[in-house]
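Pilot study result, target chain (380 residues):
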Amino acid sequence: MKRRGPFFAAAILGLACTLPGGLGALSRPTATPTRPAETSTPAAPPSATPVPPTARPPSPTPLSPVIGVDTIGALSIFVSFGQGETLRTLAFSPDGSALASAAGNNEDFAVRLWETGSGLPLRVLQGHTSIVWSVAFSPDGQFLASASSDGTAKVWDWRTGSLLKSLDFPNEVVSVVFSPDSQTMAVGGVDGWPNATVWTWSVASWQPLMELSEFWNIPALAYSPDGQWLVGGGTSRNVRVWSTGDSEPLFTLHHSGQVSSVAISPDGTTAAAGLCEASAANAECTRGAVWLWDLRTGTLIEKLSDFSDGVEDVAFSVDGSWFIGGSRDGMLRAYRTSGVEPILVVRSPGGIGALALSPDGRFLATGSARGEIHLWRIEP
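Predicted structure:
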């Protein structure tokens, strides 16, 4: 739901999947009836054949616990895999069975799907001709969308790998997200420098609906859980909140640096923005942060300036009790939502270019600049 395209860089300088297991087949001996010999002498009764005990089925593999405030301290990597290019975006399928990723600099423009439980590859979606900055599943599980510097957003049947629709835009697009009811898709990107736009499309007809204006680029994009608000922006240091009913701007959230990502709490009251809060003269980020906003009033709640590099991605837990941010240097920091107290500090190998939480709250995925994907869980 976020990424900074080359255009932005030049201008700014800067499952739970179903685990293998289940009941095994019961061992049932098949009895072969014995016919008595056809003679006048009565047949001797057949000797009894011992019946082996019924095989006990194996116990199902236990599910990983949900990552909660009280368990997150035991979070650890259980599998790592990848493709050797800088990870730009990660997203779990709604059923948690698959993880979508996109990576690359100048060569790898594919979207890849991985099996969550094992990290094994499922399929590769080819079709983009430049870097893919964002991927998103529709909440109903029907579609996977991807936004690219090639000026297109593509819509896929992710289970078969078929390309269903390709939408063209004036310039690069770097973010994509579906509305909670899966009926609308929003795409953010450049629209004639220095202008940027969020375009929305009807999923039923693939006809355009609204154009929402911003500046420079739109790496951060998210719908509120009830679908009434669309939040987007980032490169201009502003994040805007629009009403999806009439496209009217409600608030502009001003930041001290460029915003890479935004996430909204499950109850729709709070937005978390990941950003570079301070930079050196050479545009190198010297302090990253997560800023919390009250979406009902547009007011700043808290600045969490605990990161030594820019925060690339943020996410709320499924129940909204905690949220997490990941910075380019690999620092993962999680906080309790109530009281905003830190509950986890750990480092993800290779830095962080993207992160995602599974819809059931049992898995965290982080992607590194080295192209590695790490899957985290609480060991059952």
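One observation from the pilot: The domain at 67-378 is CATH 2.130.10.10 (Methylamine Dehydrogenase; Chain H). A full batch analysis is planned for the follow-on phase.
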